[in-house]
Structures are given as structure tokens and as C-alpha cells.
Amino acid sequence: MSDLPVMQDGFGRRVEYLRISVTDKCNLRCVYCMPLEGLPWLRREELLSYEEITDIVRVMAAMGLRRLRITGGEPLVRRDLPDLVCQLAGVDGIEDIALSTNAVLLDEQAEALRAAGVRRINVSIDSLDETRMDAIARRPGTLRRVLAGMEAAERVGFEPIKVNVVLMRGHNDDEIAEFAALTRERPWHVRFIELMPTGSNLDLSADAYVPAAEALERVRELGDLEPADGPAGNGPARYFRFPGAPGSVGVITPMSHNYCASCNRMRLTADGQLRPCLFGSQQTNLRDPLRAGADLRPFIEETLRIKPERHFLVQGSDRGSGGLVALSQTGG
Ligand code: SAM
Ligand code: SF4
What we know:
By secondary structure, the chain is of the alpha/beta class. 29% of the residues lie in helices and 16% in strands. The radius of gyration is 19 Å and the shape is globular. Bound molecules: S-adenosylmethionine (SAM) and iron/sulfur cluster (SF4). Iron/sulfur cluster binds next to loops.
């Protein structure tokens, strides 16, 4: 038996994965995520420094944390991100560092991020059509830059590459087959994500929600699918593949089938709040005790204790989201 430390919550779930949001800002304004006018951004002094993030990870790694994902907002808009990755890669106990990005700035940063220690990458692409992608991201020229970022990701050897597609009726549901067909050509793992309601997208999430089961039906029209193990990672996706295909098709179903029973994660916001659940209002301020020189362990233990059994999201309502305006505030 291993005597390595293990973090467990009040329901006996093992927590070994932390999603770290390094910024609340973003260079896109995806219709389902961030209001066009942006949000009230955090002030510079409110943000955790890279050293502070690493201090928190060091304490948690000694308690049983093993894997990290860097996210945002858009993480690549924060300056010198590879420096943070280098620091995190040097923490005893951390085995894996992944990144979630919109890939707009990936072309120029892929090599440095890979060299610093990012192994795996998730890229969000919601349409393969330029005009539509611009309309969803509400920034011109997005698709071209994202595709250049994906090419760079392949070139420098990120493995696996996962592609996140948020399903939206009338925006991209007619592209489901086209996205799935990509997995026959490339070793990409395309994951269809059910749209989740937040304070800033209530109309859209009520009108445009597509259950993942419907996406899978459309994919099956292309050919038989077999269940697949899916790529390495920590996530809740269920995977399938076309026989012989290099990539796979996954579904992430927070609305139709929640996967809270096997939740293995917590989240650290850019201003140092440790959140036990993506939704809900529970969070623990780690930044102020850290800056005061306090021992963080009791604060982390308390956050594990209050980790809720499940989320209580309701389609078309921000009840259950705990006042969350946008997923960019917590890293998604
Ligand atoms: N900017 C990066 C990106 O877009 O990948 C990282 C942060 S983003 C908040 C993380 C993931 O959350 C993305 O895959 C995004 O598509 C997804 N997301 C954001 N808002 C969502 C919502 N309301 N419902 C479902 N997925 C959402
Ligand atoms: Fe930015 Fe990602 Fe939110 Fe889109 S989903 S607005 S890229 S944080």
C-alpha cells in the first residue's frame, strides 16, 4: 500500500486535481461565456502572483494533489505563462500539467509552454466556419488564429490534443458531423459539451441547449461508433470512436447526466479563492491567509469538508450557479 498522502472530501471522494485560473480576462467574448462589454476585471493586486500560486500548489501537493490544469479567462493573455509552468513543474508530487486555451495566442507560445512542462492541451473551437466562429467568439479573425495555434500544438508535440465544442442549437449543431469526421483524419479528441446556464447567458442557454445524446445520434449517422477509453486526463467525458480512427469523439454532460459522484477536483480562482465546486457559492479565501503568512492546510481541509455532493444547476435559471456570471470567473 502506498503511504502517499491523499485528499478526501466529506463524501469520500479523492481529490487530486486542481484547475488553476491565472486570469479572469480574455481576448474573446464567446456568446455563452462572457458578456460583450466584458466583466469588472480584478485589480492587479487582487491577482495571485506566480509565486503565490506555486506556494498554494506546494501546500496542496504535500496533502495529495497530483495534477494541474491551467485555465482562465484566457491563460495565454497573462504575461510569461511558461515561467509559472516551470515553477509548478518543480513542485514535488505534481505529475501532470495541462492547459485549456482558446488557442488564439498559441502559435507564438506553444514551444515555450511545451518546453516549460505542459504536456496536454485542450483547445476550444465552436465552429469550423470562419464567419460563424467570429460571430460566436465576437472577435474578427479568430478561426484562422485558432487553427494556426492547433498546428503549432501538433508541431511541438502536445499529446493528446482535445478539442472542446460547446453545443448550441442554431449556432453550430449542424456542424456536429463535420467535427466528428475530423477524428477520422487526425489524432484529435473532439468533445461535445452541453451548454451550462450562468448569469450572463440565461436566454441563450435556455434557447440553444442541445443534449449530448442528440449530438451522438448525429455522429452515428456517419458510421458505427465503438466505446473508447479516451485520451489520458482527469475529465468526466465519455468517449467513442469510429473503428480504426486515430481520434475519438467524447461527450461532456453536466446537464443531462452529471458526474458529480466521481468528482476529483477543486478550483483556484485568479484572486486566490479555492472553490470546491464549479457552481454554488462555497469558496475559501486562500490569498489573504497566504499573504499574512498563515498555515494554509486548515483552510484547504475546510474546503474539502464543504465540497458539495453535487451541483444544482437548472436549465434556464441561474439558481444553483451561486451567482456565477460567467465560467471565465472560475476557469470552467
Ligand atoms: N479560455 C479558455 C478556453 O476557452 O478554453 C479557458 C477557459 S474556458 C472558461 C474553459 C471551457 O469552458 C471552454 O471549453 C469553454 O468552451 C467552456 N465554457 C465556458 N462557458 C461555458 C458554458 N456556459 N457552458 C459550457 N461550457 C462553457
Ligand atoms: Fe474566453 Fe474561453 Fe470564455 Fe471564450 S470560453 S470567452 S475563450 S474564457
